[in-house]
Amino acid sequence: MTSIIPLHIYHTNDLHSELSQWPSVVSYMKSQRSFHEKQGETALFFDLGDHTDRVHPITEATKGKANVRLLNEAGIHHITIGNNEGITFSKEELDELYDEASFTVLLANLFDEKGNRPRWAEPYDLLRTKEGLRIGLIGLTVPFYPFYKELGWDVQDPFKWLPELLEKVKEQSDIVILLSHLGYPDDEEIARKFNGIDVILGAHTHHLLKQAVNINNTLIAQCGKNCYYAGEIKLLYDQDRNKVIHSEGAAVSVRHERPSPETKALLASLGEETDKLLEERIAHLSREIAVSWTEPSEFAKLLTDGVKEWCGAEIAMLNSGLLLDSLPSGPVTRKDIHRLCPHPVNPCLVHVKGSVLKETIAAAFTEKMIHLPLKGLGFRGVKLGRMEFSGMTVELDELSSYVKQILIGSERIDPKKEYKLATADMFTFGPLYPGLAQCTKKKYFMPETMRDVLAYTLSKQYG
Questions:
Q1: Which of 330, 336, 323 has its CA nearest to residue 278?
Q2: How many CB atoms lie within 10 A of CB 462?
Q3: How many domains does the chain have?
Q4: 215: domain range?
């Protein structure tokens, strides 16, 4: 009897509710599952988080539960969560998200305010395959501290929990696999710092590793974004030597897979449910409210005024690219609002000095920022668009777009004074407007998104 045992691993990450692509992924996984069953081999199937994204109406309407049904139908064994699961749903919604899951959620570094791990998650799991292999699994997610705190969670440093868990799991396992939604740089650091992890299945940073990377005898794999690729890993374990003697992995394109008919049928059914859930009428307009990404526009001003009120701020600024189209006359439903403002972007109140605000506004009127095709930070639009203001007046030179004067109310902006500014959370993350990112006093309004503010404002004015 041979002492060499193969183990096959398949993994997905960062679908971001690109649900039209999911049937092709599932088709590939089902065919691989069938193949290994015929060979009498064990195959394990994992998802590494950010499967949900409220940019899709199905995810929005079902609060992510449709994604869970899709993972169930695909036969996924274990998952960990990403930031799109962790911080775009309310605490109550996340607590209920996995009620019907047929897979196990692994998550070691999330706790409630009383210090308890959520009832729907385990820090690790131990499996025994039919060949007798002992598999240890650990799950970790990226610690977006202020956002989890606003929602009533205590997310902790994954590097704090990994050493103890790893020792515990290693003692009981032949093969150790880390399900990571930490990002590739952290995965590399873990591989270098810790011995005994055979495979890190990664996510979050959307790295497409067409060939898995081996660092310190740890294989690291990640498959980009939107599941145009799925991951395939093969390990060979020598029972006589008690070690993995071979590991290899690749990202496999599934673009040309024939979509799974069963998954397509489930998606169609979920789409019908969504239409019913989002048909609630919010307002009725007697005329169109227009938006422009390059010129001042009424629709962008309406949302900016609404965010100022929502946050209890003195002033507000928002980019018009948050609104993907004008709002036509007639009834306005929740589906309309989601279509026009699909981003998982939250309102934020920032205490900012006048000098920093002046620099930020000047940068906002550059052609680069207006036409920036931003991807990420929650933004799901085409371009950032022109900045709109509430509680303040910005006077521009018509030819050069140079900011000539900024008035807060009727007074010139004071460079030394601190103002309470309502804006989009994505402007506080660093790369777009560093001055806002460096402000220390910030309050994030969660789990409400910009479309919640938009629905409130439209209902109030036109309901």
A1: 336
A2: 15
A3: 2
A4: 4-274
